[in-house]
Amino acid sequence: MADYIVRATAANAQIRAFACTARDMVETARAAHNSSPVITAAMGRLMIAGAMMGSMLKGDDLLTLQIKGDGPVKGITVTADANGHVKGYPVVPDVILPANSIGKLDVAGAVGVGTLTVIKDMGLKEPYSGQVALQTGEIAEDLTYYFAASEQVPSCVGLGVLMEKNNTVRQAGGFIIQLMPFAEEDVITKLEENIKGLPSVTTMLDEGKDPEEILRTVLNGLDLQVTDQSPVSFQCDCSKERVERALISIGRTELQDMIDEGKEVEVNCQFCGKHYQFSPDELRALHARATRD
Predict the structure, then answer these.
(1) How far apart are CA 166 and CA 22, in angstroms?
(2) Separation between Cα atoms, residue 292 and residue 53, nearest integer Å
(3) Among 76, 113, 173, 278, which is most exposed with the fewest C-beta within 10 angstroms?
(4) pTM higher than 0.85, yes or no?
(5) How do 233-234 and 85-90 pair as beta strands?
(6) Angle at 86 between CA 214 and CA 24, to 5 degrees
(7) Helix (H, G, I), strand (E, B), or coil: what is residue 17?
(8) Is the CB of residue 39 less than 8 Å from the CB of residue 169?
(9) CA-CA distances (angstroms) from residue 173 to 22, 35, 134?
(10) Angstrom distance (rounded) from CA 84 to CA 283
(11) Residue 12: φ, ψ to 5°
């Protein structure tokens, strides 16, 4: 099943809903970072959320999700746009932890206590930024809390990444359900009943359910109307030109120090791991540009 997102409404537009399948996207990120199973699960959950939240944006808007915690992963950053392009990286990708008390990957243990920050760059003078304390470190519950506390939108977020024994991604996906301000009490009650008996996201994916079927399960009896479908993928927009601009921005003194060493400098993209080499002559050219600027 190719990765994609569906957008939908239910209960006469009293509910808006998103669901996606994202195995290939998360597997691409895992391979880029050679991340351990627990970090793949944590990073994957945040990327899946980023994909769906990115689909709420318009045009050239950009979304950044950032988790910082006192757990061994230290932090995870994800960015997404409105076109289903997502990238992400963990600060420490190779964390190994024992399973949690219910035998699952201990994402909360890897993340620890900390904060979740959501930044939306919508082309305005200043980007919108909201931050909440992590509630569980499991990410889905933390985003549910974020939507209620920072955006005042009652929501239910489900995220899941299931790993194979060989450390590749078996299943990945999720859903976001949001109540509109005019949602009626009987609609809220029915949704709460559905959510109480809901299997995990990875269970539903492993049963062969696609995003539409996941939403039909979550919104059973609430007149689901799928409105749109779009692809989602891991995509990094790094380039040598971008890295050149970053090197110029560090300043002439630092560039001169690199030049004086007389060695080739290698810069790695945090998001995709791609390597960019700069010879001393190229560094001198960048230094000259920095001087002109």
Answers:
(1) 19
(2) 41
(3) 113
(4) yes
(5) parallel
(6) 60
(7) strand
(8) no
(9) 5, 18, 21
(10) 35
(11) 55, 45
- The contacts of residue 166 (CB under 8 Å, 6+ apart) are none
Give the relative orientation of helices 140-150 and 37-54 as an angle to the nearest 10 degrees.
Answer: 30
Total residues found in the chain within this entry = 293
What backbone phi and psi angles, to 5 degrees, belong to 192?
A: -60, -40
State which amino acid sits at residue 148. A
**82: CB partners within 8 A, 6+ apart:** 54, 55, 57, 58, 59, 60, 61
| Dist. CA 92–CA 244, nearest whole Å | 25
CB 244 within 8 A of CB 23: no
* pLDDT tens figures, 182-202: 999 999 999 999 999 899 999
Exposure string over 92-101, b if 16+ CB within 10 A, otherwise e: ebebebeeee
* Gap between the Cα atoms of 90 and 73, Å rounded: 7
**Amino acid at site 16:** R
Residue 229's SS3 state is strand
Nearest C-alpha neighbor of 84 from the set 235, 227, 209, 202: 235
Cα-based distances in Å from 122 to 17, 83, 132:
22, 14, 20
Enumerate domains of the chain plus CATH numbers.
4-234 (3.55.30.10), 240-292 (3.90.1280.10)
Per-residue model confidence as pLDDT tens digits over 4-58: 999 999 999 999 999 999 999 999 999 999 999 999 999 999 999 999 999 999 8
* One-letter identity of residue 128: Y
The whole-angstrom separation of Cα 111 and Cα 242 is 30
